[in-house]
Amino acid sequence: MKSRIIVPSYLKRAVSETAQKAVVEESEAYKIRITNSMIAAVMLSANQTWNIGVKRMGDFLDNLTEWLFYFDDYMKDGVGFEILEKRLKEHGLYDMYKELILDKQNTGR
């Protein structure tokens, strides 16, 4: 005979809410780690490519941070990529972005 544990519904709800909270917290922590990794990669690339020092790097990272927060807000609304492409086009950078990023991804390079 198998034993059966009966869990009251209020306890199921509490466990479910706790699990959801844990998933959200882990998701936020992962997002922060990814963002920090991207910023570190950009810092290394800027330093190696253009020999940007501490002062210019600080200004550059301030701008990068502002743009990341700006696009993150739109990502939450589900239109982040569209806004990103719109801003790139407004600054005359979309064709370069398409060639250097999008086309290379599509060809597997």
Overview features:
109 residues; 4 helices; 83% helix
What's the SSE blueprint?
Elements: H1 9-50, H2 54-76, H3 80-90, H4 94-107
SSE succession: HHHH
Structural class: mainly alpha
How many beta-strand runs? 0
How many helices? The count is 4
End-to-end separation: 60 Å
Radius of gyration: 22 Å
Quaternary structure: single chain
Fraction of residues in helices?
over 70%
Provide mean pLDDT, rounded: 84
What can be said about the biggest beta sheet? none
Approximate shape? elongated
Low-confidence segments: none
Question: How much of the sequence is in beta strands?
Answer: under 5%
Structure description:
This protein is an all-alpha fold. 83% of the residues lie in helices and 0% in strands. The chain has helices spanning 9-50, 54-76, 80-90, 94-107. It starts with 8 loop residues before the first helix and ends with a helix. The model has no long low-confidence stretch (mean pLDDT 84).
Question: What's the gist of this structure?
Answer:
The protein is mainly alpha-helical and 109 residues long.
